[in-house]
Each structure stands twice: as C-alpha cells, then as structure tokens.
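A.,

Following up on our hallway conversation. Structure tokens first:
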C-alpha cells in the first residue's frame, strides 16, 4: 500500500514561536509529509484576523529547515504567488473561495506559468464539479503538472452536523474525471469541530483517498482562526495512529477467490433485478391500458400510499435503509407513470 500523504499545521501562521513549536511537535510524530499554514486568510467578515502576510513567509522557511519538511500556503491572487515564489515556498494551494472564481484561478495560473510548482486545488465552496475541473484545466494549460486535489466539503445554508458537508459523491465523480490526479481530504474544514475529525479521516481512508490535510495548532484554544477545529499535535498523532488505510486493490489469491464468487452473485442478482423491473413495467403498461379503457387517472394516491407503507415495513425487517427504499420506490413509481403515460397518449 502507498504511504498516505499527511499535511498538517495551523490554520494560520500567527507568530514565529507558534509556527516553529507546532511544526516541531508535528515533525516529531514521524507521520507528516508536509507542513501547512495560512499567511493570507480569507475571512467571512472584516475585522477578523486576516493573517500575518509576507512577514510570516520566513517563519515557514525556518520551520521547513528545522523539520526537513516542505511547506504549503494558500495563494489567492498574483501578488501572493509572486511572494510565495520569491520566498521559495514549496507547495501552494488554491482555497475554496478562489476555486469558485475563474478570473482568480486564471490570474493565479498565469502567475504560476513556468514555475514548475506543486499546486493543490480545493473544491469550490459550492457543489459545482465543473468549476473544480475548470480550475484543474486552467492550471494544466499554464504548464503546472504537479497537481493535487483537496476535498474540503461544500458550504451549506443549514450546516447541521458538518460545517461544510462532504457530499462524497462529488469528490468520487471528480476522481473518475481525473484518475491521474491524487486527491486528499481536509476533514478540518468539513467538520468545523474536533470531535468529527477522526470519523471523517476513516471515511476518506475507506474511499482510498491519497491522504489528508489537517489543521493542528500547538495551543488550539488560543488560535486566531478556526479555533474549534484545530487539534493539538498529540491529538492528531492519536487520530493518525487509529486510521485504517485500505489498499486500492490486491492480487492475494484467497481474496481473489472469494471476491470473484461474491461478484458473480452480485452480477446475477443485478441481472435478475433488471428483468424483474422490466416485467414490472410491462405490467404497468397493461394497467395503463385498463385505466385508459375505464377513463381512470394514472395516479391513484390510496394505492401508492399502501405500497409505500407496506414496502417500508418489510424493508426495515430486511435491514434496508429507509432512505434507499424511498428513493427506489420513487424511481420505480416515476418510471411506471412514464410507461402508463406512453400507453395513454398512444392513438387508438
Ligand atoms: C484553510 O485551509 O485554512 C482555508 C481557508 O480553507 P478553505 O479554503 O477550505 O475554506
Ligand atoms: Mn482554516
């Protein structure tokens, strides 16, 4: 199995002491691939701590020299890129609020042209996969070859559990579109609070992500940004110890034997389900013919309520989730109505 990429560090570089101390504690875990720290912070409201700016870049370089780890910062315009290149920062990332804006992404891509830098691209704050893909294309067109994607979740009007709900399926589709580009998960900005981070890390490992980028601060309760989601290096170390990283695939003979048998069964079941659905729709067409002859409406609420009630009861006993069965029934009902409508609209 490949070793996962683990990028860790504070949300923001606040002082030389905070940064160096955090970096050394993180490096001592022996599990970190690179350090992160924001120096220009995109804040929702004015008046909050907006980062130390250029002043912090030499602190990052010092942290890098002391720990022998590369360092990563966020860049949001061409001035940031120029300063990052001037200070020889190893890795740059485009934040979620920048990925949404093609003008910004283009400005950054132009400033990076010919630099050969490693660039990480966070998903945009809104769940628009094309914007994310568009950012990849803009950077590739600028000659940037070393790209990593960061899945950090999507903003929501009602963030009930997560600060930025993961919506894993969007990231999965993004990986299908760009299979050669590594994807890491940012559970810190998804969670918004410490206690949800370990679970999200395991979910990312289960989906065979290439690694994680996690916020860690030597004194989280004194953090000037994203206080509630920052872990101490010790807390991070425990979480990392307990993640069960799965391998992408294996050729181990016992596993192959077992998995092939199960997959045969699944393939047969899928074929049977398909045939049963086709039969069900043929029956729906006969119903359509009978309803047309009797001048009865397609939708019969009483009948549909009964089907939903009875099926939900049975499915619970079978260990199938409410959500799945409701989606399946709705899809079957919609398809059944389509078939009946086709019959109703046929010329006699
Ligand atoms: C960050 O990484 O500190 C940050 C601002 O993240 P995002 O762009 O995901 O909000
Ligand atoms: Mn942050």
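Then the amino acids I'd put at each of the 348 positions:
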């Amino acid at each position: 199995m490949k070793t996962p990429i683990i990028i860790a560090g504070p949300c923001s570089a606040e002082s030389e002491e905070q940064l160096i101390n955090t970096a050394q504690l993180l490096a001592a875990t022996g599990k970190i691939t690179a350090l992160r720290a924001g120096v220009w912070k995109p804040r929702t409201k004015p008046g909050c701590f907006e980062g130390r700016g250029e002043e912090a870049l030499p602190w990052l370089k010092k942290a890098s020299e002391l720990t022998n780890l590369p360092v990563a910062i966020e860049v949001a315009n061409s001035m940031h890129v120029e300063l990052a290149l001037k200070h020889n920062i190893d890795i740059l990332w485009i934040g979620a609020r920048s990925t949404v804006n093609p003008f910004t992404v283009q400005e950054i891509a132009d400033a990076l042209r010919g630099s050969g830098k490693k660039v990480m691209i966070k998903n945009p704050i809104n769940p628009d996969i094309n914007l994310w893909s568009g950012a990849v294309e803009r950077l590739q067109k600028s000659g940037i070859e070393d790209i990593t994607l960061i899945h950090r979740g999507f903003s929501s009007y009602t963030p009930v559990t997560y600060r930025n709900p993961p919506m894993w399926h969007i990231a999965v589709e993004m990986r299908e579109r760009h299979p050669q580009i590594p994807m890491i998960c940012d559970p810190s900005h998804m969670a918004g609070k410490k206690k949800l981070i370990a679970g999200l890390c395991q979910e990312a490992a289960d989906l065979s992500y290439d690694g994680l980028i996690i916020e860690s601060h030597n004194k989280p309760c004194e953090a000037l940004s994203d206080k509630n989601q920052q872990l101490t290096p010790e807390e991070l170390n425990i979480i990392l110890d307990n993640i069960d990283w799965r391998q992408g695939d294996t050729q181990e003979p016992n596993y192959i034997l077992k998995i092939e048998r199960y997959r045969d069964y699944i393939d047969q079941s899928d074929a049977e389900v398909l045939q049963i659905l086709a039969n069900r729709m043929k029956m729906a067409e006969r119903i359509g013919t009978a309803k047309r002859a009797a001048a009865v409406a397609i939708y019969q609420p009483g009948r549909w309520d009964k089907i939903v009630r009875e099926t939900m009861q049975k499915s619970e006993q079978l260990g199938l989730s409410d959500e799945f069965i409701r989606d399946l029934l709705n899809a079957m009902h919609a398809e059944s109505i389509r078939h009946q409508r086709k019959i109703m609209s046929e010329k006699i």
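The chain has 13 helices and eight strands. Curious whether your intuition agrees with the design.

B.
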